[in-house]
Amino acid sequence: MLDMRFEDFAYFPALRARQAEMRALTEMDDERLDQILPMMTLGGWVPAQETRRAVDRIGDLMRGRPYLLNVGSPHQPAGDSVAPLFDPAQAFLAWRSFVGDLEGAIPVMQFETRGDRRALVRQAVLVERVLGRLAFRVRHPETEIEQVLGALHALDDTDNAVVYLDCGYLRGALFESWRVLTQALIRLRMAYPDLIVVMLGTSFPASVQQFSLSALGPMGAMGTMGTMGTGGAQRGVLEIQERSLHARLGGNALVAYGDYGALHPQPRPTADGSDWTARIDYPKETSWVFHRRLNDQSRAGYAMVASALMASEPGMGELDCWGERMIVEAAQGEVFARGPAAWLAVRINIHLARQVELSMRPSPARIIGGRGQEPLEWHECGVEDLLEA
Asked: Mean pLDDT across the stretch 104-119?
């Protein structure tokens, strides 16, 4: 059994077992990686013959650290070797056996799609008995919380479980996400005040086009980007709304923070086809900044985009992570790669480094119910604080 405690981690991102995400984690320094408990999801993007190799690589890149393994949803495309893992027979025996053979892997429980609520209880009890640790990913809180509460009640120790409240894509639905997650969080906290609960969601869009602040012709206001040919330079800023939601829920004092690693719930394939342009994204604590050059796929284009980012972000390099170093080197003319997949890994790496740093900070002092107080850890707060937050 794993010798670990969920409360020892600061940041709980949900990622896919794809090239970009795994490169981003591979390049993470040990000190930050120690504070991250990633949930890695298998799915249709993993070729059938590569499934075992993919999970072995996850174990390698985590360098002996624990991680959560999720098989996704049976309603999403899955490779031939992933599909059998959805089989609910014998309390998801195929899934439990698969994860049981992997060092460091903690399984995410599967919900029985046919409505058998006892299946989740049996699955959780058997996983706790054999593996010691387990996770629940609640995508539909209004219908799934009762099943999770039943499963938690059957465990020997709820410290062995972590519950993710996943609101999915929340841009444009911030208030509704807050409402649903608040109700679910209250139910969980009333039953299990010390339970590890993680807020999960993302506001990264499928396309950044509508968030462009400028579309400049050759040698425009962003002249550091140089001649644009027939295209133009564009930059934009997007608020990280999952951070706003986390704060509104009470911050670390009431719920741990998780996100999708600066990815849309259904990101485009990372294979570099012809429909892309030179673009670099720069994650900050509460926003994402992007620069791009339309109709340009050259290394020189990436170098100019990186130079524009360096000019607009004077703190570039201070985070001291692999992703920032790739941007700095590109601005100096040493572009490590062309195409979306490689630069997606850069964005994810910077985002993970930035968010784990932010998550490790003590929660700021808050006024709850009219009383000033020192920062609290989430497990030190009661339900009354959640109701007043």
From this structure: 88
Q: 124 and 234, same structural domain?
A: no
Residue 8 token pair: 């020892």
Domain with 285, as residue range(s), is 208-239+277-338
Tokens describing residue 33: 């990686």
My answer on whether 38 and 121 are in the same domain is yes
Q: Is the pLDDT of residue 5 over 80?
A: yes
Judge whether 254 and 378 are in contact, CB under 8 Å. yes
Report if residue 344 sits inside a domain: no
Indicate the number of domains in the chain: 2
Q: Please name which of 290, 325, 240, 323 lies closest in space to residue 25, comparing C-alpha atoms.
A: 323
Give the model's confidence band at 275: pLDDT under 50 very low, under 70 low, under 90 confident, else very high.
confident
> Buried b vs exposed e over 22-51: b needs ≥16 C-beta within 10 Å?
bbbbbbbeeebbeebbbbbbbbebbeeeeb
Q: If residue 256 lies in a helix (H) or strand (E), which one and from where to where? A: strand 256-257
The mean pLDDT of 158-185, rounded to a whole number, is 96
- Give tens-digit pLDDT for 178-207: 999 999 999 999 999 999 999 999 999 998
Taking CA 96 as the corner, what is the angle to CA 192 and CA 102, rounded to the nearest 5 degrees? Answer: 105
Whether residue 16 is contained in a domain is answered as yes
Q: Which of 295, 316, 338 is the last residue of a domain?
A: 338
CATH number at residue 267: 3.20.20.70
188 and 232 both lie in a single domain: no
Token pair, residue 209, equals 């086009």
Q: List pLDDT tens digits, range 211-229.
A: 887 544 333 333 233 333 3
**41 token code pair:** 């999801």
